[in-house]
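go over both lines:
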Amino acid sequence: MNSRRAFTLIELLVVIAIIGILASLLLPVLSAAKNHAIQVQCLSNYKQVGVGLKLYLDESNDQLPPGNNLDAPNYLDLSETPAYSATATNFLSYYLAADLSYPPPATVGNNATNVVKVLLCPGYLRTPPGGYNPESDNCARAYSFTLTRPNRPPLDQLPGYPFGRKSEQQPALTLADIAAVVPLDQVWALADMDLEAIEQPASLNEKMPFTAPKPVHVTVRNYLFFDFHVDSKRVNGFENF
């Protein structure tokens, strides 16, 4: 006679328990690996943005956007979106679109928007603030990154804001202006933005509901520096963006 031996109930429960323990050990590791992959993708995006910014500077006598464009303001918003149109002249995406192989703003139209995808942090897309869906308005309010804010020494010695300043009608600086005060590899141009990094989040006004409440890469923020290298810095509380 052939005999068949099946699992007993106790043996089955032990196997299930072992599987549960293994899963609980593996899930955090897999989650961390996925977060790291998204962070690296964000850094790669910034690297491409650096290439586009370098091309723009080469064509603009080394002056940062918006440069001497008579049809645009002499400053860029500090809180930035990847979307652009023919009239969105206060966003970096407007000036870098063509150099990053996206359609020039003039071809997009006044009432339409296009998106420079390398300026859209993939971590932001995973954790949209307040239920905001970036696809709902073609990322027109996806405030996922910020331009440098010279609030700390030695940047407070700069003759103005790198990308211009609205309140004092200061034009954008050149890289030479910045390098005269501090080495370019020590000054970031772009950074991931979240409310925990800003001294007075309420100052963002209508942008606040569309800004990530916490660092989207959890333990680090990504940066593009004015010498065009990219790096990550560990989150260390308030950054005073």
Notes: Residues 33-234 form one domain. The chain has a mean pLDDT of 86. The radius of gyration is 23 Å. The chain is about 25% helix and 10% strand.
